[in-house]
Structure formats: structure tokens, C-alpha cells
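Q: Got a minute? One more chain.
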Amino acid sequence: MGLSRGDYPVLTLGQAPATAAVRMAAVVIIVALSLVTLITAAHAETPVAALPGFLPAFASLTALAQLLTAYLLWGQARAGEQPALVVPAVTYLGGALLIAAHAWLFPGAFFVTLQHRGEAAAWLWVFWHLLFAGGVFVYGLYPAAWSGPGDFRRTARRGVWIMVSLVAAAVALARSGLLPALVGAGRFHVPEWLLVLMPAAMMLAMAALAYGRRARTVLDTWLFVAIAGMWCDIALMHRGAGRFSIGWYAADVIGLIAALAVLLGCLAEINKLYGRLVWRAARMDDANARLQAVNSELSTMAEHDALTQLLNRRAVLMHLTESFEAWRRGGAAFGVLMIDLDHFKTINDDYGHLAGDEVLAQVAARLRTAVRASDIVGRYGGEEFLVVLPGTDAHGIRITATKLLRAVRDTPFRCQDRPITVTVSIGATCVGGKDQGPEHVIARADRALYAAKRGGRDRQAWADWSRA
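A: Always. Here it is, folded:
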């Protein structure tokens, strides 16, 4: 279930409710990150040997996790045409760009010769946290009135443009040298106002999720994990202060773990959503198969007589009309046989209506067996049957009528364990040049049937179109 959005409801991470298992996993991760932060904080200032490859590896993995998360959320936003999901998607995109720029400008990480690179890297770290908190805040309070499907493309273009502009402005401002110094003597000094601003931004983001979205979906839950990771990141970075300290390394690792937790959580939920769609597709296929079977049965019931299993009056007349229209367009001629059981009322009176119904069913079976597969046999009404013989001339029509007479007469029927002989009378005709419609052919066959009745029954009578 290919599947289309019109066939199956699209459920995105912004719609999927967070299960108890998802919430428990998020709580376990948050508690684990908090415990690591508390334990590490006591030794956060302890210097550790500088590992030249650590920051590029950390930045690459974190940026990759952020880019993959942005890609997944973007795909979810497109699949569900949910403009609100564009906000976290572009937020993660901006985070990946800022992390890459932060690593590039970090002293000693790469061979670059940029002025203020230490300050620029520090400020980009700050901007990354503030941008993420701001994106989550906007997502949490995203107006429901903007969530219509028609707004998706406009919101997507606007979101990408705004995020790219913010990242470009952040990089330019960080490199400008106009911002207060955060680095001195190889240590990271966070001003009091910034130390208040960053946690306050995190609190506002969490409050927006809790109030605006009621923190009820899978995406809300994992965004809480990401924010908790940033809390721990900020705390350890403040405690560690010095670069290449235990606190600095631990802060980076916690940030990476939080980013990977969100990515893996989203992947797990998307896998569940895909499994649900496959299950729905299988169920839908089963339902469609059952529906087709029911429709086929209803179609059969609508076209067939319940007692004799032959075509009913409407269906056999429809086939007669099609044969007539084909003949009028230059197709082959066809014959018509009108058949009526002889003395059928006597059978009903002597043996009962159930026996009469059984005789009708047996006669119908014999008629169907005696004609060709291409011939059309239907119950015209009561004890009357109509047979249409496509591509048959007058001689062939008479031969078929004789076969039907014998098929009914030669083998006795049994009613209440008593053999009885049943016969039929047949009126036969062939379509001809004076016929203006199928009703003319039926009327002529009907006149021939009454002629057979008057002639003594158990016989056929012919009505030629040239004498109609």
C-alpha cells in the first residue's frame, strides 16, 4: 500500500502519539545524561590531553545526525503536508550548519588562519543553543491556523530562507569581533547575562512544547530529550570552562548522544509507521478482495435467476438487444427460441409448488447443457425460457430446437419418487430485414410458440420474418 495519501491516512512524527515505551525510553536517557553530568561536574575542570581528531569527529557525527534528522522531519512534513514540521526540520538544518562552522573556526581543529577564530567558535556554540531553543519554541506554539495543506510550500520556502539567513548572520556576527569576549587564557568565560539567557531559552522551549502541543507526540518527546541534552551541555561547559577538559569533552559527548537519541528515536518511530502502513495495505488488499468477491456475487445475483441459475429476464433481454444492435451494424444473424413448459399448472396442482420449482430447475439445467457455450439461455418469466442463438441460420435454429425438445422429453423427471414426463413447446424465428427492434423478434417467436401450443404441444413452430 503503491500507496497514496488519498488511499491511506498519513501519520507523521508530529501526529503519532507517544506510547508509554517511548516516554519511558526518553526518561531513561534524560536521567542517564543528568547522572553523567552530576558525576562529571565534580571533575569538570580537570585538564585532559588534547586529541586533535576529537573535535572533527564529534562535529562530523553531530552534524550528520542533525542533517539526517532534518531530512527525516522534512520528509515527514512533505508526506503529511504539515507546515508545522517544517520548523523543527529547518531548525536541525541550521544546527548542522552552525556545528560545522563552529568546528571549522575552533582553534587547532583544522588548518585555518582566521582572525578571532576562538571567539567565533565560542559564539557559534552559543548561537547553536539559542537557535535550537528558538526553533523548538516556535514549533511548540506554531499556530494551528497556519497548518492547512495549502500553506506547506509557502511555509517550507519561507522556513529555509529564514534559517539560511539566520545561520549566515550568526557566522558573520561571530567573526566580526563586535561581540563581547568569551575566551581568555584558553578558558571559556560565560557572562552572567548569557548564563541566564541560555537556560531561560531552554525553559521557554520546554514550556512551549508542554503548553502549546501538550507534549503528546513522539516528536515532542524526543525534542525534550534534545533540550535536556543541551541543559547538560551548558552546565558542563560552564563548569569545565577550559578547552580539552573533562567537562568540555563530556559536554560534547552528551550533545552527540542527545542528537543521536533523537535521530534513532525518529528512525524507530518511522519504521513503526511504515510497518503500520504495510499492515494497513495488507488489510486494505484483503478488504478490496472481499469487496470484489461481494460485488461479483451481487452482480451474479443481479443478472441471474435465483431458482434456475439462468440469466434473468433483464439480463437475457440485454444480451438480445446487443445481438440485435450488432446485426444491424452488419454483423451475423441470430435466432431466438421462446420455450414454455407444457401443462406446468398440472404439475403444481398434482405435486405441489416445491415440486414445480424442482422441475423448473431441472429443465433449466437440461436447456443449458443442450446448447452451445456461446448461446444465451435465460428465464423469461414463470415457466417460460428465452434462448438467443448467435450466428445461427434457420436450419441451425431448427436443429437446436429439436435437441431441446428431446433433452426435456426423453429423460423423465422424478417428483416425490415418481417418474413424470415433462415436455415443452418452442416458438422459433430468426432476425430479418423487417425487424426494427428486438421486441419485433420476441413478438414473432411468441406467436410461433402459441402456434406450437395450438398444434398439440411438445413440438416447435417456425415464424419467418418475411411473413411477420
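A: The longest strand covers residues 334-341.
Q: Perfect, thanks.
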